[in-house]
Amino acid sequence: MTVSMTYMGVITWYRTDSFWDPTSTVISSSWSPIHGSGVNSGHWWSGNDHTTITSEDMGKSYSFCLTDGTGVALSHITGGAGLTSVPTTNTTAGTGTNSLTTAPTSFTNSHPTRVNDNYCASTNLLLAGVADTSTLPAAVTAYSDGYKATITMALDWIQMGAQGGWRGVCMVYYTSQYIQDNTNGAVCMAAVQSTGTSLGSDLASVVLSHVPAATWQPPAATGAVTPTGNALTDTKYGIVHAPASATAYVYTGGFYASSAWYQPKYASSYADVARFGKDRYTGAYCMSGASSTSYFTAPAASVVLTSAARLAAGVLVLGSAALAM
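Structure (tokenized):
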């Protein structure tokens, strides 16, 4: 598919003369006018179907099949002004100093570098203390000392074999560089794709979830995990998502999604979500899924975490048992 934009900013969609190849591992498409559905674009009926500008070519639509190896999605768009609504927000990358996962920059036709082998989006983690906790809600201060975590994920256009899929990252606590402690399960942030009509580029929601160890035990490659099925909703976390609600046309390159939450006060053990802090280790797992299943992969070894700021005076150092100076 070739996309063209006029000097006035109007997006037009130009045809790609191709058929869907069921043996292909890359995106394929087929363009045809409605009255000639299934006819190759080279047919004389399609002599003017290279554009969907309504005033020039009424009645035409763009039909295509997409697959990432897990299934096939059949979609279509029509011409008109609806294609010109480009978001202007959520264009800023995260400032986290902890790189959790990195999206691949190239693919091949062999495992493990095929398109359908890719579960990774680029994500980073920002750890920062709040200097003054007096303005936080009582539910938050009863649970947290103001130590905040923010995961930011670079969005990209995905096709999971069906709309409504998701992509994200899961963090698992490590007691040292090589020893995993999954007692408290994993904290996962995911961007969920909408089931709308915008080529799979509509975002349904951003979700922060807690996956118990009994549900998914890393490094298992799959699990019965869905973002909404394990979502954190308690006010004590003070969760802030961006985008905060469903957003059209944002699930594509150049846009970002994030989840921020307050972590529990330092303790020797935790009842639910663990505390990820400075100088501690975490393992990051890429997550991708649809329907009722998530798929996981560990792109690298565990990483030691760094922090951008210290907590308010008189409280514990970020993630450690030592007193703050």
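The CA atoms of residues 157 and 252 lie 4 Å apart. Residues 2-84 form one domain.
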